[in-house]
Amino acid sequence: MGTAGHIDHGKTALVRAMTGIDCDRLDEEKRRGITIELGFAPLNLPNGKTVSIVDVPGHERFIRTMAAGAAGMDAAMLVIAATEGVMPQTREHLDILNILGVRFGLVALTKKDLADDETLELATAEVVELTRGTCLDGAPIIPVSSVTGEGVSRIVEEIEKIIDKIPPRDGRGAFFLPIDRVFSKKGFGSVVTGTSYQGSISEGDEVEIMPSGVGGRVRSLQTHGAKVSSATAGQRVAVNLAGISHDQIERGAAVCEKGAFVATDCISAWLDILPSAHEGVAHWQRVRFHVGTTDVVARISLLRLNADMKKSGILPGNSGPVQLLCESKITVAAGQRFVIRFYSPLITIGGGRVMLPNAELARGKADREAKARIVEGLAADFSPVTLLAAIIHDKGILSVSGLSELSQMGKDPFTESLSVLSSTPDTYGFLEFGTPQNFISSEAFDTVTRSALRILHEFHTKSPELSGLDAEKLFTSLDSVHGSGLVKVGDFKVLIDIMAARNAITPVAVQGKTCYRAADYRQSVDSKLMDLAGRIRDEIASAGFNLLKLPELEEKLGATSSDMKRAAAYLREQDDLRTIEGGLLFSREMRDKLLKALSSMSGDITVASLRDSIGVNRKESLAMLDFLDSQGLTKRVGDTRVLVG
Predict the structure, then answer these.
(1) To the nearest whole number, what is the mean pLDDT of the chain?
(2) 441 - beta bridge partners?
(3) For residue 222, how many C-alpha atoms fall within 13 Å in the half-sphere facing its CB?
(4) Dihedral sign from CA coordinates of 373, 377, 382, 383
(5) What are the two backbone dihedrals, phi and then psi, of residue 120, each rounded to the nearest 5 degrees?
(6) Fewest 10 Å CB contacts: which of 254, 270, 348, 635?
(7) Confidence at 34, pLDDT banded by 50, 70, 90
(8) In the beta sheet, which residues pair with residue 253?
(9) Which residue, among 177, 199, 218, has the nearest Cα to 411 in the 3D structure?
């Protein structure tokens, strides 16, 4: 439970009256009489439960610190001095509580000992008006004096009632603790504190400090000053770290389960602009982005960028899907609430919820619209299963290991959620393919299919006489598929088979292997090409065993280079022609004659004996034998060949 409210309205004094602990621990705080840093105190309730109290500064200069403290709150105690009433930071703090999704709390009207009945009545009426329509609408309003103690016990009673209404946080995800304090303790080493956002942690666990990625181990844990062996989501935790110097850690970083989180600078989110904001948020506007205990500068990229949005952005009181492009790498958790403030002046204007912590940057109108729909879907139904589906749609194509890395779920929750997702792929609009598992969104599969058809149609237009392209050639032409390196050619063949099953493309057997063509393609050979192919056959046949090259034939036949290449490709597909070592042309007729010559030779078949037998040079003789070896027609044994079959 956190405090909130204007400077000098008695937040720290009230915490001291409730817990006996002075949260102002710094010399400067005591000298100036104001709270500068976050303070923490355990409140032991009569029912035996313990509540962690987070005391925040009230000065406008320390709003960033207040937001860091509020990020871990399950409930809030809005503190308003009865003698002064509602002040600027009262309103801003209440706005931040609303933005961060705090749903439970109370209002403490402090300094009751200095206010008469009429002042208390006016202050109460002002609070009712202030909280109408907010997270504290209808919350108890309790006059209290930290000096006399009047009202303190009633506040404690109300806190007991409030915590019974608060649902427990989800402890199943990978451990994530935003750090709000860092220090070194003699004999222990580095210590960090924070409110655990999700997951659980135990002594001996391997952890990472993100976004830096520095690794270490949990030496010991404390909650409320007591040593514990483990801690879970929602608890205030002090973590004593081994293997990490406190100089390597700063507030705003996070203690994370090893390997479960990735640093990011692009976040897809749902953004709400406060009705009380003086103006909306424009596309590409620079803002202060407060999430967890992190505070960075970011750009707002509006995903719904129609003509009105370009002109006015998201107006006060409105919402929309956005991407936050941070100017430095941070680590956040899916589902985390955040606050945005104008870069200058520093005024709170809105906030929202992180949907995809490691999003792909939207590029172009169609991509913006697609990513807007992903954010809207998660905003309407945020769960582990819908999160996995959204990651697939955001990335387009990724492996099961890549999906696990971005899920932030930990091994067992990920396996459970993936099992549910995989059982209903049509519901979530994706396909599984390859070994091990790969995932492709329906939109990405359609894009890949369109790209494959485009490449095939271009090939058919250029070479209508050929049957199609094999998987390897098609794969190398599809940068959109394998550019990320996640999809191998073997897995891509599975995608091609799915395209064929859906009648988008047609497989065809060519020389013992499968090629693919567009389903609407009809192979045709023009008379000019047929004539040139026949002339090439005749020239090769008349040369006997003297092997020719394509440039020689091109000059002899007076054909263009492109026509010769087309005719040669057609002959290769008909198994009438092969190009062997050195660019030598070797026909099917020549192959049959060569096999007949070899079978009639006496003695060993060697490069020299073949050379002498058919009257060619050593280079050509070697090229022919190597080709026959590659076709399985001969087998090399030492320096000799034997016929196979």
Answers:
(1) 89
(2) 430
(3) 12
(4) negative
(5) -65, -40
(6) 635
(7) very low
(8) 251
(9) 199
